[in-house]
Amino acid sequence: KKEKIMCGIIGIASNKPVSINIINSLKKLEYRGYDSAGLATLTKNNINEKKCSGRVDELEKILFKTPSDGNIGIGHVRWATHGVPNVINAHPHSSDQVSVVHNGIIENSDEIKKELELKELKFKSQTDTEVITLLITEALKENEPLDAVFKTLQKLKGSFALGIIFKNFSDIIIGARRGSPLAVGYSKEENYLGSDSYALKSMTNKISYLDDGELCVLTKDNISFYDDDLKKVNKKIYSMSEDESTTDKGAYKHFMLKEIYEQPITVKNCINEYIDSLKKNINIFNFPIEANKINKIILIGCGTAYHSCLVAKYWFEELTSIDVEIDIASEFRYRKLKFNSNNLYIFVSQSGETADTAAALDICKKNNVKTCSIVNVIESTIARNSDWVLPIHAGTEIGVASTKAFLGQLMVLYILCLKIASIRKDINQSTYEKNIKNLNSIPEAIRKCLNTESNVQLMAKEFLHAKGSMFLGRGSSFPIALEGALKLKELSYLHAEGYPAGEMKHGPLALIEEGLPVIILAPKDKYFQKTLSNMQEVIARGGKILLITDIKKEVINENIRFGVRVPYIDNSLSPFLTTIPLQLLAYHVALLKNCDIDKPRNLAKSVTVE
Ligand code: AGP
After folding, report:
1. pTM to 2 decimals?
2. What value does the mean pLDDT of the chain take?
3. Active-site residue among 404, 419, 544, 605?
4. If you count Cβ atoms within 10 Å of the first and of the last residue's Cβ in the chain, which end, N or C, has fewer?
């Protein structure tokens, strides 16, 4: 049975025992997957393997009872979409000679397995990874470790990031990368291998990244890199950015709530990075294509990042003379597209590691078009592979549900839109300056939106016994309706439909029945009256209305069950504010339903496989 995995890997070569640091790093990598975990260390030339199903906490308990010595080791957290997440399938996969951790998919594992079984070799697990273990073990009979790994890689199809230790070569870890991300970190008398720089952050801020096809050999004192011809290569060492946000929950019950409440600050940080308030100007330079020459902008992302692209489409259309297209990365990468070198392709991704978005970016690169990425993790694959990077400066986002990164993406997209509009003279100087000034009101307005929490908490109760729910909006409130519905689905496992309010009559109105909770997003923009008419259609069919608006007058009447008022700044800025009660709503419904808020079922923070 073919297994797909998305996971995190770590390796440490040191002059002191490594198991505790492996556990600590695996905890950081749990955002990539959390249905089983494992580690292997080398103790007196023995491979000492410990594995469990479930979270890294379980693995820690096992280690507490039976500690693992060893100054060299590898670890793994797994997320399976196929194949049972049990102890046997958990990584590492070891033979009597080697132990392997793997992130990715070996597409020809079935064929290799058959060949190895003909040689009477036995498999313990259902995973595709174990073929790597057995191939290296076979190759080691006639080769040194690096050659044995290299020869094994020639036989593999698919994607991988690997960490490998060897029973008889007790001072080395070999890493290899094709498709899946892999970083190394440097420290005094200790070196590291990891799926991302975040996992290594508490140990070092000196990082290099393996490029596709490369291998590395780590000892505690040295790291050597090799290209796909096994020729030695040198690597650039990056100093990682300082992360201002703490990575513990503080007084908050969940990371998600902490991250929702961080938004006034993270949005302010982002504004400070890009806006020169004194000169009333936007500090964005070095466009990969002159702004005047951009023919079309294509915005690409997945999930919440896609929703930020959708909001930006309304802004670009409103403020610039440029045509805008948006696409979901998993669709973009398989479409037959006409590329144009005057188009700017913008990739939006919090993690910068999303497989579909990264693949869509690769396609653009192959077609020689200019790419820009809007990311939170600036050391990520997508950031490194794009021509131009605009970070969102939101600080580490731990909760699987994206909150502060969404507002960060919106902020960078809005600022970029204003800058392009001004360079192209699509807006005049006074509109440009007025819009820049308006941005400064957003952090305080978000803070006011957070004050709606107690009201939203009451609203959440209306969803507890509901069969489903509906989120409606027009214009840029339509993507916010989609985002509100996505947040509710992923956190509370409750069915939620996001729809353009004007589309109701074309089908979804049939879903409205007595007591169905319907969230109406109705800021005072050009769609306001139309949205209210759509709301009446819902009321007439018994829907329970929960209205989010920025109009000043009292909104509650006998037909509206709840009203939440957010501040008004400017028509185009309402997405920054109406989002907040929707994030809080999803949080509180999930809390009432006792769901695992920071790690919703079946999901992972960084989707590194297709
Ligand atoms: C958001 O709450 C989701 N968990 C998900 O849709 C996410 O936005 C999507 O997977 C894209 O991730 P990225 O921004 O890291 O590329």
Report:
1. 0.72
2. 91
3. 605
4. N
